[in-house]
Amino acid sequence: MRGFFGMGVEGGSKPMNLGNLLRSAHSFGASFFFTVAPHYDAKQVKQSDTSDAAKTLPLYNFDSVEEMVLPKGVQLVGVELTDESIELPSFRHPTQAAYVLGPEKGSLSPEMQERCDFIVKIPMKFCVNVGVAGAIVLYDRLISMGRFPGRPVNPRAEAVPLPKHVQGGQIIRTKKE
Question: Which letter, b or e, does each residue of 30-51 get, where b requires 16 or more Cβ atoms within 10 Å of its Cβ?
Fold first, then answer.
């Protein structure tokens, strides 16, 4: 998936849902995964992370929102169901982003919401578990980053192909002495 991005969760989540979120982040090509004030059993998380993401995906654990450090240039996108949140289908994903979801049966803390550059919501009647919400956000990122042709206007129409990629001329570098 284009861009540098990470996925994280604040607070506690059920181990199976956290493992699902970790596996989804790995599957969609996340650059890193993080937790803030985590409450989980790594052995139980591993049971649902069948991709064994922890072996190839950097995992960062922060004790608090204040201690959380993101790579330079990465914008933080909170996923939270509030009246002020941007609806996900209308959101333009930053190329460099970190997505953070709240705990099971909870919300992003006011401190985390204050830290976010954007807060988005999945337009649904009620919240789904953190694993499903994360997969929906990652899928939306995938289809909105311009890697696929636009959808046709009606089911019988052909998809509009992406324009052919054009490269510039050759660049020759020489050693400076």
Answer: bbbbbbbbbebeeeebeebbee
